[in-house]
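Lab notebook page, bench 4
Experiment: in silico fold of construct C2
Operator: M.H.
Input chain length: 259 residues
Purpose: comparison with the prior construct
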Amino acid sequence: MFHHLSVYGKDFSLKDINGKITLNEEMNIYKDGNVSFNYLLKTNPFQRVDFSRIEPYLTTQEKLSIQKIKVKNITAGPLQAVVPIEQNVIRLQQFDMKLFGGNVAGQLYLDTTPKDWKFGVLMRVSRVDLRELLQDKNKFKASLVSARVALEFSFAKRLLQGQIDITKISQSQLLQLLEIMDPQHKEAQLNKVRELLRYAYPKAVSIDMESGLLNLSISLSVLDNPIVIRGLPLSPLIERFSFDALQKIDKLPLTKEQK
């Protein structure tokens, strides 16, 4: 049980942690000091967690809350969630968090299987200001975005897969999204969309990620069929937003293979 706990690191801080984390672990400890999981759980980011597995945690109604989360220049919170930790899987069930002026809610997990760490999320994003992710926040006017998100990221393979569906989006929001994907305006296909947005407005956007590539489908008011852009590389985005975190995770002791 936590009561007004705060944690500070070099590039992050967690302020005013309250509530409970449920822990269920069976570990092997070796003479050389190494540890391993006695057994491993499998995860799937694209389906809801089996209720029978998490019911014992939910019936207690014990939630963990964090008033403020800061990672470098990104600030979020408050956050509330049911947090069970079982073997290699850390879950945030029924999480609800304020982020970039809006709200994100759903479920996520961190799978710490040795040599195969994964992060998965299934959530709804409501009225979030994407300018917080831009290099120049003052370049665009405030415009809020809502979306459905189902993603999984493999730390070992540096691969992101899944889908983001944005059903209501403005010109400014789409331009911000393109700026995040291509801040140097090097992608000719994205520059074509930028030109069309001078006199058209977007109706829907779908982003599909698989095998290290990003496919983008954009429905515009002036076109009968959506613009489909395939094969944009994901590596530059991943490196730009998570390089430091990936380097640190590679050095953790539980990234070692089990004996």
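Observations: Residues 235-250 form the longest helix (16 residues). The radius of gyration is 20 Å.
Next step: discuss at group meeting.
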